[in-house]
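Re: that chain you flagged

S.,

Sorry for the slow reply, it's been a week of failed gels. I finally had a moment to sit down with the sequence you sent. For the record, here it is as I used it:
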Amino acid sequence: MRPKNYIFYLLTFCLLLPVCTRQGLKDYPLQPVAFTEVQITDGFWLPRMKTNRTVTIPFAFKKSEETGRIDNFAKAGGLMPGEFEGRRYNDSDVFKIMEGAAYSLSLHPDPELEQYMDDLIAKVAAAQEDDGYLFTTRTIDPENPAPGSGKERWSNLGSSHELYNVGHMYEAAVAYYLATGKRNFLNVALKNADFIDSVFGPGKRRGFPGHQEIEIGLAKLYRITGDEKYLKLAKFFLDERGPEYHKRMFPETSEFSIYNQDWYLQAHQPVVEQDEAVGHAVRATYMYSAMADVAALTGDIRYIQAIDRIWENVVSRKLYVTGGIGSRHDGEAFGEDYELPNATAYNETCAAIGNVFWNHRLFLLHGDTQYLDVLERTLYNGLLSGISLSGDLFFYPNPLESNGKYEFNQGETTRKPWFDCACCPVNVARFLPSFPGYVYASQDDGLYVNLFVAGKGKVRIGRNLVEVSQETRYPWNGEIRITIRPEQSQEFSVYIRIPGWARNKPVPSDLYAFLNEDGEQVALKVNSQHIPLELAKGFARIRRRWAKGDEIEIVLPMPVRRVVSHQNVEHNQGLVALQRGPLVYCFEGVDNDGKVLNRILLDDAVFTVEFHPELLGGVNVIAVKKSDGSGFLVAVPYYSWSHRGPGEMAVWLPRGEKK
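Prediction finished late last night. Pasting the structure tokens below so you have them in one place:
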């Protein structure tokens, strides 16, 4: 029987993170407030989360049924006849939707969805072989698995996705256990993990997954069970990466030649020696996230030093102004330093989600707002652009320019409902219900407000339960009211993030800069009294004895800002982009007489901002006089582009001299 009260959610939080803490072991210095403890009422985020629950998750399950992804489990389990359908990694798509459904059940109990999940879990359990192995394409037809699977188990780890698939299963199984208290899915995951642990490790089989993910899943299994073998196996797979083993792992005749390139798999160096983001961007961010988990849980400082170096490389040389990463279509990969083309930018939606995962973990390690600045930039721009407002159309790549003709989105000039490789839709489906878990964090006697989202959360500060609530129209408005309600009056610190863009720094590097600094200051009040900003790693620190009903008011100025790129970004020289608050804007042909690629933004142009409640779900529109004085150019938030048919779009426009 499922517990339904607050105690259950508190236990959920205890299970999610601090098995290690209870045992006196290591963990992240800061702890996120579990998404089940944060209730979102926000006018921007709540509709998106509702659409994800009512449209995206059911739609993704339906498409998985139509494309044979779910039937593959039934076929592998002998529940129905038939051949394997689709690609070797299709199992992972189903697991990601299941994870999203489990998160949704944690927030919104739904007996029908829960029954659907139980029926699906039964198919997954049937597909598992007696020893724990689970890979439907090989089980259905061991002699003729899908291309890239390898002739036998583990024979083509670089491209088979055997380990990648089950990593997503581990995440989904943990999520479902915490949502329902049922072990049916968790038992399948543990049986598989135990089997893999019996195969791989020191003194056993050597190797690593071409696509990282199992390492994250194993860390979650460790958290839920406290069994160190899962954490050790995660670290083993990470430490196996490097050119020496890579050469033995891939035959020269591999049918997927790109997998032979060690840089593509982040295997060009041992992970602790890496200092540059290379190769497939999604694989990379999953690896960096796993390294952060292992570093936090083991205390291995070399992992932290490596991902710090790589992060510096990304934010200084390889980050798009939208927060997107991975500039090349070829290999879905990072390019060279400052290689940031706009029309051909890849910026996979999955890579944006991976970038959020990674930066959140770095924040939990270091407690610095610079990681949240990158997270927020990615979240509101390069991630949200990947899904339509309707919840059933998706971008795989997210370019910053379009002529309305180039079919950048796998054969389409706009969003499409599904893909043969459907990782992006299902990744969004699992991310959105977990979004509330990024809003707050805590440490010792400190409460951290990371993101500005209307709603309320419950946070443990020592033995005291503290309710924190926000009222705001962010990202359209920079006014935020935060109310603190501790059960008992107590002295502690509240840390409120002051975004880099509100401190004249769009990103924590010199990759982008505002053309003109804004002189308007951030205003901060406590109980209607102005107080000075006391910044600690970018947070406004307020230390006092808090009582029920104490209010914090903060005003973040939101003028329209002109953004320019570092001189080494060749594609952006002489160009300027617009940003207001956390949002990057773009110009679409539909608002500008069909043409935007030949437009010019004057350096002294005056902007007007107006909220249009009926446009694109409700957006602030920026208008500016055309350089020839014949009318106005109109810009909308980048995430909202391509909802009104194909056409020209540009984030960056040529600068014009002041008149």
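What I noticed first: The chain has 18 helices and 24 strands.

Talk soon,
D.
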